[in-house]
Amino acid sequence: EVQLQASGGGEVQPGGSLRLSCAASGFTFSDYTMSWFRQAPGEGPEWVSSIARAGGTGVYADSVKGRFTTSRDKFQNTVDLQMNGLKPEDSAVYYCAAKFLYESEYAYWGQGTQVTVSS
Questions:
Q1: What is the pLDDT, as a whole number, of residue 101?
Q2: Which residues have a Cβ under 8 Å from the Cβ of 80 and sit 6 or more positions away?
Q3: Which end of the chain is more exposed for a tag (fewer CB within 10 A), N or C?
């Protein structure tokens, strides 16, 4: 059974930090690009970041560049999102997703974890 289990969400004050983690199982993790998306109430999903199968430097949406960092652990089959300098507009449900090799669509999605940035 394929699972993407996201965790680490919560409530934090503006300027604070959170670290999200997504644990993958049931598929060959190293074959998949891993990404984070978010969705705020009343809005469509927004791509946040992606990291290639081999890891390395991630790519980011302009809205989070310089504040968020994604990483992956090939031994633990996890992908993380370190979020610093959080702003109220970062509040959303965050989802991890997996895309196989060169396919355009994401094959697997996690259940989401809520991030709330509020004073």
A1: 81
A2: 19, 20, 21, 22, 70, 71, 72, 73
A3: N
- List of residues 6+ apart from 58 with CB closer than 8 A: 49, 50, 51, 69, 70, 71
Q: Determine the residue type at 94.
A: Y
Q: What is the pLDDT of residues 60-96, one digit of tens each?
A: 999 999 999 999 999 999 999 999 999 999 999 999 9
100-117 residue pLDDT tens = 988 889 999 999 999 999
Please, how many CA atoms are within 13 Å of residue 108, restricted to the half-sphere of its CB? 22
Long-range contacts (CB closer than 8 Å, 24 or more residues apart) made by 30-34:
30/74, 31/100, 31/101, 32/98, 32/99, 32/100, 32/101, 32/107, 32/108, 33/98, 33/99, 34/70, 34/72, 34/79, 34/96, 34/97, 34/98, 34/99
Q: What is the overall mean pLDDT for the chain?
A: 96
